[in-house]
Each structure stands twice: as structure tokens, then as C-alpha cells.
Amino acid sequence: MVLHIFNKGIRHRELLKTCAELIGPDDSLLLIEDGVIWAKEHKENALIQGLLDAGVQVHALQEDLTARGITAADAIATADYAQFVELTERHPRSVSWF
Amino acid sequence: MKYTIVVYGAPFSSQAPYSACQFAKAVLARGHSIYRIFFYHDGVLNASSLSIAPQDDAYLPAEWATLKREHNLDLVACIGASVKRGVITPSEAERYQRSGDSLQSEFELSGLGQLVDAALYSDRVITFGAG
């Protein structure tokens, strides 16, 4: 039960790829800051789709989505800061990718 | 639960300190405590007393100071990272023969041992990375 926190944008595909390879089925991914771009539905997000297909919960921080004018895909759960804290309560460990 | 928050980014060049500050407020609002906030790498610039924000701009060094006063938080900047970036106490200024000091009074400089201690004694360690 690891919460992976990813904050890098579209130029950091390799980092997201490494992150996605290491995410276990019980882990969750939280997209924050520039990382919320990966929550958008677009042809580049096969990595995220792969995680969703594997049953991984993917979340994106609403405030960062709003700040960038991005609407998250339906399969992605949006979270406010209180829900971010709740995610850290549920996951005993976290890894920040940056 | 006891939380420790680690901040790697500087104000004005990274979103990390803003995110960390919002997260810290949410942690406290949910009834948890914060064991320590550790500032590392460029994050130590949050502890500078010499930076000046444009008017009406959010100013994180002041936000941290307010949080510290309201919740008696332990704000620690890594001493190695701080000295390299010109964030120094009066005693460091004297030791390195600099003309002034630059650490906000709400922060303290200490070693990486404080991060290890925080990892040992906190239930959660959440890192806000930059760079």
C-alpha cells in the first residue's frame, strides 16, 4: 500500500514510465502540480490507462487541475487537499517522484 | 497521526513549497499533528529573511512563520544546504565572516540527522519534490 505522488509534466514521460512499472496492484497514484496533465484524456496517456486497466486507483489534485484548466478523465478521481491527506492516512508509505 | 513534511523547492521557482504549505494546513485541519517540516536543497530558501515578494503576491516564508506561530511547528532547514545558499544564522555569519545573517527567526538550521529522526518518529513522511 504505497501512495505514489507524481508532480512532473508531459516532458517527463520516462519518469512516469519508471513510476508505472513500480506501482503494485494495491498502490495508488496521485497526480499533483504539473503532473495533473496526465489526468487528461489524450493519446499520450497509455501509461495511465495501463494502470487503470490493472486496477490501480489514480487520483488528481483538483486545485492543480483547475489552475491549469484541465478536466480529468472520468476514470480518474479528483481530490482536494483534505482528500490528499486522507490518501496518506490510508497508505502507510509514500514515494514522491520528481 | 504524526506527520513530517519534506520540502525540496524554493518559493517563486517551484510549486513544492506552496503544495507543502496547503498540505500542512489540511493535515492540521484533519486533527493530525506535524512532527517536523524539513527544508532541503533549494527548499531552504523558504527560511530566508531577506527575500521580498512583489506586493499582493503570496509570500511563503511569511506563511510558514504564521503556521509556526499558530501551531508551534518545528521548522528545520538543512544546515549544509542553507549555508551554500546564503541562509545563515548570526553565528554562521561570524564564523564565515559574512556581513549579515539571513535566517528567519521561526526556523532553525540543523543537520540531516533531524530528517532521520523525523522519519523514525513520525507515522508519515510526505515529500514535496522540485527540480
Automatic annotation (TrEMBL), chain B:
One of its GO terms (biological process) is tRNA wobble position uridine thiolation. One of its GO terms (cellular component) is sulfurtransferase complex. It holds the Pfam family DsrE. Keywords: Cytoplasm, Transferase. GO terms for molecular function: sulfur carrier activity; sulfurtransferase activity. It is found in: Cytoplasm. Signal peptide: none annotated. Belongs to the DsrE/TusD family. This is Uncharacterized conserved protein involved in intracellular sulfur reduction. It comes from Hahella chejuensis (strain KCTC 2396). The lineage of its organism: Bacteria, Pseudomonadati, Pseudomonadota, Gammaproteobacteria, Oceanospirillales.
